[in-house]
Amino acid sequence: xxxxxxxxxxxxxxxxxxxxxxxxxxxxxxxxxxxxxxxxxxxxxxxxxxxxxxxxxxxxxxxxxxxxxxxxxxxxxxxxxxxxxxxxxxxxx
Length: 93
Fold this sequence. Notes:
The protein is mainly alpha-helical. It has one helix and no strands.
């Protein structure tokens, strides 16, 4: 035999659930709006660095051409470790 009437607790819980639904939908709408704005205004952004691309900036007709710079340090040379050059650990009696 099913009960046709709901307890007062069920009405309050339904009201709280509806309030939580409104809060979650508002949160999702804010996140979606931020994503749309970022994607819409991020056309000059590159990767994860969030720096404007120099290739997208307009060229300055009065700018002088850059001179190439020498590298700051020579490239590192890695060699395989020599087995004969490594000393063996000493053992103590």
